[in-house]
Amino acid sequence: MNSVIALIGSGSTALSFIHHYLQQLEAGAALPRTMYLFEKRAAFGSGAAYEADRASNLLNTKTEFITPFIDQPGDFWHWLQTQPALWRHQFPGYTPEADGYAPRPLFGMYLEDRLKALVKRAASLGLNVVQLHAEVLDIQQHGNRQVLNTDCNLRLVADYVFLTCGTLPARRNNALAEHPHVLNTPYPVSTLPARIPAEAAVGILGARLSAIDAVIALIEQGHRGPITLHSRSGYFPSVRGTQGRIQPRYLSDEYLATLRASKGKLSLQELIALVQKEIMELEGTELRGDFHLPAPPASLENYLQDEIHAAAGPRAWQAALYATNPIIDQLWAALHEEDKQKFLDNYFSAFMAYRVSIPVENARKILRYLQSGQLRFCSGSFGRPQAMDGGLVLRMDGEQIVHHYDYLIQAMGSPRQVGHLESELLSRLLQRGVLQPHPLGGVKIEAHSYCAEGANGQTNPRFRVLGELTTGAFFFTSALDINARHAKRCVEQFATVFTPAAKDIEAAQA
After folding, report:
1. Helices 104-124 and 75-82 meet at what angle, rounded to 10?
2. In terms of C-beta density within 10 A (0-12 exposed, 13-18 middle, 19 or more buried), how is residue 176 classed?
3. Which of the four pLDDT bands, split at 50, 70 and 90, describes residue 510?
4. pLDDT given at position 506
5. Mean per-residue pLDDT for 200-208?
6. Contact between 275 and 324 (Cβ < 8 Å)
7. How far is CA 375 from the centre of its chain?
8. φ and ψ at 2, to 5 degrees?
């Protein structure tokens, strides 16, 4: 067996993939025994989300729950307790708590260590994992072989390619793309003081997790100038309550399957009613009236005060929303196509604000900065930034209001539309039709096999895609446990189609 597979990206999704790949080998699957693992960043394992940075960048999943290995619950918590020598020197002030929120860079250290263990385990099973510090710039198919070209002029050949590249930045496509005072990303936030003078007026475009990381990092590192958060939708993340995980009654595979059997596709209102039903079940109350989308907060200060107070206890609606993780793919697939677009157009910003919550300690910091007057929150659409009079200006759409800044930070996360991502590899694959954009985000894939669909409408059995690039097919692909589940399914499906073919070849050669 001389087949080779290549993984592009070595973050948490790749770790999940390798973990389940090894399980298939242990179970006797005749899979390729050479794996190229490409990573353009300095460290293998942590990926963009958990790279080395300040400890103020917190996870938003409790320590006892988060892990890239869905069959090993509590693995990160166990690692913290049993391997303090590996992390204590870098995080001397951190005390692990099962129901607390650990620094994201610490979780990155855990991922790096777990990858090392996986590579050793792979060697014992006859799998050679070749780690390559290189960015893949293009992939060209020649017959059944995939030729990978990198930024260091390395040219390698693989039989199967898996895109596990994780979060990608937005493309810089405006006149200020190269302006020295416009930062395309806040990360690593530890370098912000070196890039932005302490007295500068700073505008941050975005108001979710990366924007919050930027605000806290700036101020905790001594920034004294004014900071303004700009939220197009006006929404701000909710604050995580004390509730744990629940066993859902309605948001379950069984209930959804029964519902689909009787109704077929679901409307958006039927899906919302299902979530409401779960919340009412948890609260022990009855449904009262129709669902109304909560409006963006009129005052962020008042909103955070209310959220911090509410977060002191369990929050049924949060428990219900998090309970959707195991079946969110089925929920998305159950919707009519027009309702999927309607959800993205009308509900997505609110969903992200309420579904992707923040720890109470970060909420308290943001509230304190608002109360001090150093931080402001501005809601409403805005145009492209412009350079003017030695500074930068941001004009609110439809208004005469103009905001003046010395520096601007782009912190609006990774765009859903694949054409808006900064990636030479993706640009080339899209241009040649190897990949094609999904109208709801990411790239088109065959949902069962994860095989990429080209511009000719055909799926490519030698090219598979995982993680955030599958957001159109699966909707919510930024949660680690969801991507871990997809990695498991992808490996299992690959094994079912590869192993029989491999055995046929071996039999013929014999």
Report:
1. 90
2. middle
3. very low
4. 45
5. 96
6. yes
7. 27
8. -110, 10
Closest CA to 11 of 143, 81, 114, 123: 114
Greatest alpha-carbon pair distance for the chain in Å reads 79
3-state secondary structure of 114: helix
Residue 199 burial (CB count, 10 A): 10
CA dihedral 465, 466, 468, 469 (to 10 degrees): 10
**Is residue 28 within 8 Å of 127, Cβ to Cβ?**
no
In DSSP notation, 158-170 reads ESEEEE-----PB
Residue listed under structure tokens 């069959």:
71
Residue 299 has a CB neighbour count (10 Å cut-off) of: 11
CB 358 within 8 A of CB 209: yes
Residue 7, burial from CB neighbour count under 10 angstroms (0-12, 13-18, 19+):
buried
**Which value, to the nearest 10 degrees, does the dihedral of the CA atoms of residues 193, 199, 200, 201 take?**
120
168 vs 463: CA distance, rounded Å: 19
